[in-house]
Amino acid sequence: MRLTYPSAKAFSKSMEVVWNIIDEGSFKLNKDGMKLLAMDPSQISMIVYYIPRELFAEFDLKNKEDASLGLDINYIKNILKSARANEKLTMEKEENLLSLTFIGPKSKRSFKVPLLELAEGLNREPAVEYSNYITIDADALKNVIKDASVAANYVKLIITPDGFEAEAKSDVGQVSTSLEKGEELIEVNAETGAKALYPIKYLEDILKSTRKGDEVKLYLETDKPLKLSFSLEGAQIRYYLAPATSED
């Protein structure tokens, strides 16, 4: 197996969202591209990370239908963070090792990491039908979550025909935010309306790697898992977060 990504820096940036959520994971490769589907250590959130084949400069599975790469994400993080401008990244599977080579105009740097034998994980996403969603600027959503964190560890998210709302309360105080459709709240679809409570820390973690101008699609059903969908340097990200039963 040999893969080459044209920009090592872009690949590293896209992987930030993965290392913010999980410690280890198994990447699956087939004719369509590279995909990771994994639960966080607490088992209350799931990340789906996918890079389509056409974004790779080279995608050679060596006549195999598929391949898998079990990786220590914390270790890989330290390697990918070293990516420099004008470098491309080549990944090659060698027996029980993964070779990562950064190739610049006049330089080459190589790292070898052991592949992990991980138990077969999840192979499907939650079967939730969403009839309510918004499209929102990433920074605007981060600001909503940041404001809620002043008062509590949990935030109630609400979609109505009028827009998007967030409420947080505790013994410390209360915070409420509402957004109408506009520059920050780009799209609102509320067939039934919905609301549910979620832990703030997990929302902060998944949104860390997004930037102003990135568009996030937020799907919501009452007391069902939240779904976030966005792109990051070409990678397609989907994130599911189980609702909280109380604010304690």
Describe the structure concisely.
The protein has 248 residues and is α+β, with helices and mostly antiparallel strands. Helix content is 16%, strand content 47%.
Structure overview:
This protein starts with a strand and ends in a 7-residue tail after the last strand. It contains 4 helices and 18 strands. 16% of the residues lie in helices and 47% in strands. With 248 residues, it is an alpha+beta fold. Strands 6-2-3-4-18-17-16-10-14 form a 9-stranded antiparallel beta sheet. A 5-stranded antiparallel beta sheet has the order 5-1-7-8-9, covered by helices on one side. A 4-stranded antiparallel beta sheet has the order 13-12-11-15. The chain has 2 domains: 2-114, DNA Polymerase III, subunit A, domain 2 (DNA Polymerase III, Chain A, domain 2, Roll); 132-225, Proliferating Cell Nuclear Antigen (Box), CATH 3.70.10.
Largest sheet strand order: 6-2-3-4-18-17-16-10-14
What is the fourth-level CATH superfamily of the largest domain?
DNA Polymerase III, subunit A, domain 2
CATH architectural category of the largest domain: Roll
Q: In which range does the helix fraction lie?
A: 10-25%
Number of helical segments?
A: 4
Please write the string of helix (H) and strand (E) elements. EHEEEEEHEEEEHEEEEEHEEE
Outline: elongated
What ranges have pLDDT less than 50 throughout 5 or more consecutive residues?
none
Give the beta-strand count: 18
CATH topology title of the largest domain: DNA Polymerase III, Chain A, domain 2
Which CATH class of the largest domain?
Answer: Alpha Beta
Beta-strand content bin: over 45%
**Structural domain count:** 2
Structural class: alpha+beta
Average of pLDDT = 95
Rounded to an integer, what's the Rg over CA atoms? Answer: 20 Å
Q: The biggest beta sheet, please?
A: 9 strands, antiparallel
